[in-house]
Amino acid sequence: MKRPTSRTKSDGSALSEAGPENEKRALTHFGCPDCNGVLSVVDAGPKGYPVFRCRVGHAYAGDSVIRAKEDRLEGLLWGLVETLEELAELHRILGDRAGEAGADPIALAYAERAAQADAHAKVVRELISHDRPVVAGHPED
Ligand SMILES: [Zn+2]
Questions:
Q1: Distance 35 CA to ligand 1 centre (A)
Q2: Separation of 47 CA from ligand 1 center, angstroms?
Q3: CA 131 to centroid of ligand 1, rounded, Å
Q4: For residues 83-109, average pLDDT
Q5: Cα torsion for 111, 115, 121, 125, to the nearest 10°?
Q6: What is the pTM of this model?
Q7: Can you tell me the distance from the alpha carbon of 5 to that of 132, in angstroms, rounded to the nearest whole number?
Q8: Which of 8, 20, 56, 121 has its CA 20 to 30 A from that of 105?
Q9: Are 61 and 7 in contact (CB under 8 A)?
């Protein structure tokens, strides 16, 4: 989990982490991309851009919250691919050992699970290759 650090607004200027004490915030149902805390929103940014802040101070202006969510999604998907591919490899290793020991039903079960994990990893890789986040600035930029 990252410590709150200085973020930038859509216009490149610095964004206050905590925000003014008297700032009017509305809670959202969105989780902070950094800590998963609840985000609140204020229209304090330039040109009325919404600014999202969590309780510990992570802050996102304009569409930076979307970019952060897209980054998190990509990381989670690659983590899924990594886990599935490792799972497949581990099943192949243990299946080979079981086969060498003459435990064919166990070897078969490991081989089937390895194939399933490989197939799932392939599906997720395909999903990642077709996932296209929107690359756009604010219409007033
Ligand atoms: Zn946070």
A1: 4
A2: 24
A3: 25
A4: 98
A5: 140
A6: 0.73
A7: 27
A8: 121
A9: yes
